[in-house]
Amino acid sequence: MNKQQYHWIDAQQIYPDQGKKSYALKRLRYQLRSCLHLGTIKKFEQFINQYDFLAALLNRRVNYGYPLVHRFLDKRFNTRQRFEAICDNLLFCLKN
Fold first, then answer.
1. What is the mean pLDDT of the chain?
2. What proportion of the chain, given as a percentage, has pLDDT over 90?
3. How far is the C-alpha of 69 from the C-alpha of 79, rounded, in Å?
4. From CA 88, how far away is CA 82, in angstroms rounded?
5. Which domain holds residue 85?
6. Is residue 11 situated within a structural domain?
7. Which GO terms describe its biological process (predicted)?
8. How far apart are CA 61 and CA 43, in angstroms?
């Protein structure tokens, strides 16, 4: 079986320019955040790729990945706690 791997979303996919409106600053901010959290992003990719359903979903709907992670960017949690919350919620979705 040729399993398609999930990879973190490129800034251009999330923030494409639309007409005369440029999203260059949003792309730059996204890229900087991605670099800052590269270790956690790699863990997130590994977690998603353990579950064919999640990898297929996030590859099919490329715009789901960033909002999913962004939703859990809560300063009340540290990076590890955010990552665990994301994984727990995704596994809950798989079970139900």
1. 83
2. 24
3. 11
4. 10
5. 38-96
6. no
7. DNA damage response
8. 20
